[in-house]
Write a structure and sequence with these properties.
- Chains A, B, C, D, E, F: GO terms for molecular function: hydrolase activity; nucleic acid binding.
- Six copies of one chain form a homohexamer.
- Chain A is of the alpha+beta class.
- Chain A folds into two domains: about 5-100, Nucleic acid-binding proteins (OB fold (Dihydrolipoamide Acetyltransferase, E2P)), CATH 2.40.50.140; about 105-290, Orthogonal Bundle (Hypothetical protein af1432), CATH 1.10.3210.
- Helices cover about 40% and strands about 20% of the residues of chain A.
- Chain A is built from eleven helices and seven strands.
- In chain A, the strands form two sheets. Chain A has a five-stranded mixed beta barrel.
- In chain A, β2 and β3 (about 45-50) form a beta hairpin.
- The radius of gyration of chain A is 23 Å and the shape is elongated.
- The two termini of chain A are about 40 Å apart.
- Chains B and F meet through α8 of B and loops of F.
Chain lengths: ~325, ~325, ~325, ~325, ~325, ~325
Amino acid sequence: MAEIFINQLKSGQEVSATFALRVKKLMPLRNGTGYYLAVVLGDRTGQLEGRIWESVFETYHGCKVGDVVKVQGQATEYNGKLQIQISAMSVYQVNEIDPKRFIPSSALLLETAREKLFSILESLQEVHLKSLVSLVLSDEDFMNAFITAPAAKRNHHATIGGLLEHSLGIVCAAEGMVQVYPNLDRDLLITGALLHDLGKVEEYRFRTGIDFTDEGRLLGHIVLGVRLLDHYIGQLPGFPEDLRLKLTHMIVSHHGQYEWQSPKRPKFIEAAVLHHLDMIDAAVDMFKSAAESRDDPEDHWSGWIKGLDRYVFCK
Amino acid sequence: MAEIFINQLKSGQEVSATFALRVKKLMPLRNGTGYYLAVVLGDRTGQLEGRIWESVFETYHGCKVGDVVKVQGQATEYNGKLQIQISAMSVYQVNEIDPKRFIPSSALLLETAREKLFSILESLQEVHLKSLVSLVLSDEDFMNAFITAPAAKRNHHATIGGLLEHSLGIVCAAEGMVQVYPNLDRDLLITGALLHDLGKVEEYRFRTGIDFTDEGRLLGHIVLGVRLLDHYIGQLPGFPEDLRLKLTHMIVSHHGQYEWQSPKRPKFIEAAVLHHLDMIDAAVDMFKSAAESRDDPEDHWSGWIKGLDRYVFCK
Amino acid sequence: MAEIFINQLKSGQEVSATFALRVKKLMPLRNGTGYYLAVVLGDRTGQLEGRIWESVFETYHGCKVGDVVKVQGQATEYNGKLQIQISAMSVYQVNEIDPKRFIPSSALLLETAREKLFSILESLQEVHLKSLVSLVLSDEDFMNAFITAPAAKRNHHATIGGLLEHSLGIVCAAEGMVQVYPNLDRDLLITGALLHDLGKVEEYRFRTGIDFTDEGRLLGHIVLGVRLLDHYIGQLPGFPEDLRLKLTHMIVSHHGQYEWQSPKRPKFIEAAVLHHLDMIDAAVDMFKSAAESRDDPEDHWSGWIKGLDRYVFCK
Amino acid sequence: MAEIFINQLKSGQEVSATFALRVKKLMPLRNGTGYYLAVVLGDRTGQLEGRIWESVFETYHGCKVGDVVKVQGQATEYNGKLQIQISAMSVYQVNEIDPKRFIPSSALLLETAREKLFSILESLQEVHLKSLVSLVLSDEDFMNAFITAPAAKRNHHATIGGLLEHSLGIVCAAEGMVQVYPNLDRDLLITGALLHDLGKVEEYRFRTGIDFTDEGRLLGHIVLGVRLLDHYIGQLPGFPEDLRLKLTHMIVSHHGQYEWQSPKRPKFIEAAVLHHLDMIDAAVDMFKSAAESRDDPEDHWSGWIKGLDRYVFCK
Amino acid sequence: MAEIFINQLKSGQEVSATFALRVKKLMPLRNGTGYYLAVVLGDRTGQLEGRIWESVFETYHGCKVGDVVKVQGQATEYNGKLQIQISAMSVYQVNEIDPKRFIPSSALLLETAREKLFSILESLQEVHLKSLVSLVLSDEDFMNAFITAPAAKRNHHATIGGLLEHSLGIVCAAEGMVQVYPNLDRDLLITGALLHDLGKVEEYRFRTGIDFTDEGRLLGHIVLGVRLLDHYIGQLPGFPEDLRLKLTHMIVSHHGQYEWQSPKRPKFIEAAVLHHLDMIDAAVDMFKSAAESRDDPEDHWSGWIKGLDRYVFCK
Amino acid sequence: MAEIFINQLKSGQEVSATFALRVKKLMPLRNGTGYYLAVVLGDRTGQLEGRIWESVFETYHGCKVGDVVKVQGQATEYNGKLQIQISAMSVYQVNEIDPKRFIPSSALLLETAREKLFSILESLQEVHLKSLVSLVLSDEDFMNAFITAPAAKRNHHATIGGLLEHSLGIVCAAEGMVQVYPNLDRDLLITGALLHDLGKVEEYRFRTGIDFTDEGRLLGHIVLGVRLLDHYIGQLPGFPEDLRLKLTHMIVSHHGQYEWQSPKRPKFIEAAVLHHLDMIDAAVDMFKSAAESRDDPEDHWSGWIKGLDRYVFCK
């Protein structure tokens, strides 16, 4: 049975659902005789304050931030905002967690994405690139990870499925580019666009939120991506060394500049175009989110957007 | 009658044609009894050494580098390379100069470009942007300049017609982008793409080569472009202030970063996309030129490309 | 009748005056039975906390931060600090607002400033520059704006009249420079100093505080200033093109470096000197403010001054 | 039979030896009747000019810069400098080339190096790191490459065997560090020091000079090194994941900063120490070379040293 | 009699001891009838909250942050954390203050340090450097300062004796380096290592915490160190000018780069090595502190470490 | 008897004078039978080519670049340019060299400068600063050096007396500033302006050209200047410590930014103003020299000016 989401709750409603515990804090009672427990609960639709007045210390010590908690209680309105009066809260069984309940998902429909992936595969003429993409698409474990991974911890496409949305966005933009610039090697650019961020499946982990893995922080998705590409190409005897070198370089250089953590800068045109399309696809997502983040939709300007290092004009 | 070009000359051929004087130098005769005059002549197809043995000093003082000179002589082969033995050389009448003889022209056909310009105009739905583009296209003086201007002194699109080729390239790329990212304001992006570099018609001057104007060096094409945009919008009563502000910002911010001489960074998505498409269009031209500039087409690498600050892989 | 200012208030005094509403916040009553409204009120002399115990929600929703509010109440001392117990607070009629009540004004006397402006005009020998300055000074609308505009949102000369004070400060410093360096073109430097920041009249708006306009954030005062200069010079037939180019360049380059948002760097000496005098005039104001901002006048050091990116020695 | 080296040649001596062709140039004869061929020949001890007066064009077109050429001729003194009058010069058989004749070799004796390598292996206590180093040392093909590879194209340790000298230098310095800082993980630091640059065996190629491989320029030795480490650890079942992660990070971060092409900065102390020891070992070599490069050993200063971006004090 | 330290306190224990007053704040009583005084007390072992319920205002005004206060009270446990209920608190007599009670001390034993200092002195062969070190070591006033000074306000070695620990750490590392790189001038490097930061004795002051002196902020320890070195060498007639110049340069350049406040970059190898050893010694201390600062020793990562500008991997 | 200068020579004139030897080069005779010696001679007015046909090798080995040479010969015109046919050239006696013959001198008259120095001294009200300046002015050895030293090796004021001209220029500009900004401490600013670069007397050496001393390159004029200031203030018992600290800081911070080799940035207003006046005075000199360096006085632009990193507009 589908659980209720935070943005569906109404004042007075009984609640029995799981949430991610985002914050917990012991607070002194106003009469000075003890404490209550103030929590912030979250799911993919937002956050909500909760109050626990009984078994305060047991509950406090029985869970930690990041846990999924099973909550019993009642939604009430307090000073114009919804709150849950919680009668019971405890850690939920781990093996049944679905991150999609807690982290926003990409708007991209999985079915649409799959169709796009296979149409990309079909469109490839270069036989080795086609084999490579085919091999990757048929690796079920990898694809399950690739389909759900986020493209970032925050900033852009920080959603379940965000990596796939981002990768396909760049593939589509690349398809536009090859129409305009016929000297681009279409299949190389498309394959590079699809695979440039594949290391991100190992850079992030997510459960009730998105975080870096140790590998992600110590090696980064560029090095992890080269490793994955090596893994796949290693299974394709006869894959041309030049093509492998070019694809690997496209991963290595796609951040475009040393200070953005690319150990090499793009040295042929498909690598250079990939870098800029990566920037555009991220920018489109960040400017859109910036506009959506305004408190008042009448404002001409967003607040300060850290990932863009600027205010965004939204008129 | 069409004059001969340098890349058409054959050994033994009589030459009577105009060239740009690129270099002139008095050289001592090997027998120590006087001087000869060594010159480098150029046209859009290349450069050629020339030798003058008579009236050396008069000829030397009668012309200066950058002049168009009328040359009489004979092509000869000397150590495997063509050279002109010049019997007479003098400055040519200025009022008949055609820069296309001396500076390479964009590969874009003017007819194709005109069609594209009018199809852009037709495609615009937003009435004020359509009026603006219509006004610009119908300004014959400006269009003559816009059609011939280069996009740079060197680096990318440093050709007659290069500015138009560059501007239309970005418009085409922008048309691809709006397919992929439907939240982009198509007409704003297309108009911005077409007009973003319009100040370049006043930034460069060209006759036998491309150089900066004083305005170009002191103000730059961003400020000159804002001035031109103001000039046109000033003729369109009722042009919405918001639209004018956005278009102006797109010119002001299209270099993307302060250190690249943009006084503002892009603050809405169409401005940000325009910046990256500008980078891509320039990169496509520069990587292509880099490959073409190799001495040996078998080399995997170009020489150092200053505009890209790197060697380019050409395999 | 002159209203009372915050720094004149005494404990026990009845207050009936307008203030700028800087902060508003609903706070739970200590007995847990409801809320009170805590506000911060401001005028040009400082800020003051206020408390509202009746009609809390109506008052809260009846005004927003940045409004001018009419306040009735009594000043009281609470823990050594003054506070207003507010009996009534409502938004004040907009069309009668005087920003000088809410924003500090420059110490420069308007009469002194006007005299200086006309003595500058008189001192100019170059006929076209004299005409230009004369035209600007006689534009009443512009002068009303120029006389009241701030030179910044914070950092330096963020006062009503700050722009004029800053501009005249640089003119005076420039007059000193031409004594020392006789090869400077006096009239060019003086005119450039007077007009270099004229775009700031359109970069900022102020009412109860100083903020950027949309134009200010999207175009900046350099581009806005060029536009205004064009507007004036356009009315002066026969204004020499070279002089216009030089003056325009002085506006364009006066921040001195690309990363400080100048699209060009100074390319002749008057432009270079103007840039440094601009830096000095701003520094004098910022170091002075830094010293004044110390809590304890015995301290050798100010706190961290963001605009200077350092601590300031005040001994 | 051992061939003669350039620094052993004496005037009047007959020469029959192989050299690297560094420069070739057709020069007009002084009497204007034809050309001679001027070449620069090189071996590991220096360079020498040569002159060819017969079969000039055949010889010119029969060889290219970078070739090994077999030279017959006689050393003569010309204006105080030695020169070879060449009677015959032709390209030498490729399959017998020994780069050590043409590129300087490290001063490190191979026997000493081998002993050091095995004493490092013996000194390791951590069983997996010991297995890894043992595996690498027993890979004959790799070791042959590792023993001969240079550490750079120029700047520091640009010699045959330079990579090994550099790697062992850092190991020795690391051994000193663990004496001083006992909280360092000795075996991790030593192993990291030995293997940090192993990708350089694929980054450079050398025959008569040192140059980048395509892999070197497109991927760089950091990415190539991670690949090689993966190759070796892949053969060691049970190698702890944490240890692999740490060693890999040490390769990835050893340049210390993004702008020096490290995609990650050191995130634990052994990685940080490795980075600084790498800097020291390179500096020792570069300062020494700077002093040796002075024309006059009495000069207090070297010329400008590009790799150090400074003049070096040599007193 | 030894006073008790914060980390020795137990709930219920009577306290009569001196502490550094780190924070003081008047807080409203929950019943709204007045105020209590909340303080944070510190010594070298940590910090502790305290509460004062009587003579609140007198106590508040009778002391200021940074003072040493004599505290009477009782340790109690409140919500799982220790707190002191303070019955009396007043400023302590200044002339008896021992900073070691309030600021952590280096782990280096003074006796060990002294032995090391004299073994350094003995080890020096170069007679003038030996005289110089001997002179410094025999300057009792300076040595008392050198032995107790911190090496920084925070970041690394911010302890009493931290400067000495840091200086000797670098000397020890330098002794390792001269084993590996025999072309280093041992005595110069060792003397430079010992004295490179001597200006820090005048850069910091410490009593209950570490702060900059005015000299420290206005001149910095590099300029102060040159001045001190001049002072000592001025007492050594016949000290060679070259040696003085080299030692002075080692102080002047030891931060390695202009942006790290070195007015010169290292221009000979001993200066370059000193710079890197300085970086290593600081890094060892900062990475160690980062690991110790984790809340949960099971965490793989420290929090953000400002001095290192990164998270630290602690697994 | 006054020697002739290069810019006074006429064709046909006999020459017997001393010059600085700037370049020497052995050149093959055109008939292939030997060598001639080509030299470039210089004095403060310019440079001239010379030719030596006899005793070529003896002359070549008998002098080195930088020497003053006694030249006998005859000025001749060759291809429109003057040249000296040299019959004898030998090294001149060192102890009689006057650098003013070889290096341009400042246009500032020494008498004017002395008057200005004494009027500065008289103008000082603050008794200790007056004593300091008086002490410096009365140090004959220092003043001889201060009066002749250049302010740079090239870029700005690279003349004999350039340091004094530069220092007095800033003092004059500072006098203008204190008129405009009355909160400036006049005497501090004036004294700081006069003495800020005093270390340059030890940074440069000059004889036939300007070069760095070893101290200059290893320590720089900031550190050398602090040392000199210490030397003078050390002779003034009772000189206030605060004043010494401020003056020293003004020397230490006058380059304004770390990357311009200031170990501290200006922390009070007089130091900040001094920095900007230093920039202005250097700029005035560099822009003027840029205009003078044009080949054609009709050109609107100078060539690339390295010290300004730009082209200069000269119209």
